[in-house]
Amino acid sequence: MKALITGINGFVGRHLEQYLLSQQIDVWGTSRKVNSEENKSNRLLLDFTHKEPIVQMLNTLKPDLIFHLAAQSSVAKSWAEVPGTLDANVTKTALFYDAIKQSEIAGTVKILSIGSSEEYGIVSKENIPISESTPLNPANPYGISKVSQYMLAKFYASQGLHIVHVRPFNHIGPGQSLGFVASDFAYQVAKIELGLMEPILRVGNLSAKRDFVDVRDIVRAYGSIVTSGISGEVYNICTGKPTEISELLKGLVSLSSVDIEVIKDSSLIRAIDIPLYVGNNHKIKSVIKWNNEIVIEETLKSVLNFWRYQVQTEGRVV
Ligand code: A2R
Ligand code: GDD
Q1: Residue ranges of domains in the chain, CATH in brackets
Q2: 230 Cβ contact list (under 8 Å, min separation 6)
Q3: pLDDT digits over 108-136, tens only?
Q4: How far apart are the CA of 254 and the centre of ligand 1, in A?
């Protein structure tokens, strides 16, 4: 079995690669910059700008599975980069699916399309916890791009490609870049511990609640639903339990022995921030054997340890 991961060098891509390799799957991945320092022979240089090189690559590689992860993945960034977000997530996805449709693997390959809980956007109380039939009402450019990706998945599925769409809720874990809440907080704690920063932790909105899933649990779900899911269908990936951002902060700070003052930074507050995301995971659980196994305390420990290591070894700066 051979898998192709687009955006393999991203946060989720690296975890998915490890998981698929552990399942004895041959893994290949695309990136816009192939870094020879990493010495990884399974990386393919690919930008989603021209169809022909993609068709050629697919005809040569002939993957059985495709995980289409490449995207502009930040909600916060999407406010400032609306055309760029739509280009990365929608236009390039359409080009990619067109290339797959034109390739020799069109009739056999199974594709996973990565959406987001942000597709639901502003949700009325009676629709909590959010199931797949909850109306889509995105409230930011990222959410709009992911709804469009869902529409594309359905369209190309109707054209004969096998595409399953997933809506993962907030995934966190070691390796996530700055700009996402757990990394932003853990990075500051790690720097304060080393005395590289004054003991003041800057935060945005602490009252939002999110359904956090460890990335290692998410990639297990991806590995199963890509083959077991029905083409054209959509599946939530979530725990069903909300955590307030203030709790996540408390959890991270409690893992450290240093005294930390927390202050609100108005530049981190978004124009619209959905107050509560919590999902219903019955549909995916009716199709695959999956449970979130890693508790949030464990996840936070590994996120903080990741940033402690980064700060110590690379002396990263904010
Ligand atoms: O090409 P690289 O190696 O820089 O990979 C980035 C790729 N990417 C893009 N590829 C083509 N055109 C673009 N305009 C573009 N922008 C980014 O996608 C990047 O490493 C990768 C995504 O990695 P992360 O930003 O770390 O996202 P993460 O958390 O791994 O998310 C994976 C998927 C995305 O579809 C998210 O929207 C969803 O899960 O949450
Ligand atoms: N990033 C960030 N940094 N967020 C903060 C901070 C901070 O310092 N302080 C508070 N927050 C709040 C945000 O306002 C938001 O309510 C919540 O923490 C989570 O923010 P992010 O971690 O940036 O994630 P997101 O919810 O916007 O998007 C993530 O989850 C989606 C699924 O729901 C991303 O991983 C998306 O790619 C993913 O689709």
Answers
A1: 2-172+212-237 (3.40.50.720), 181-209+242-277+293-314 (3.90.25.10)
A2: 164, 287
A3: 999 999 999 999 999 999 999 999 999 99
A4: 31
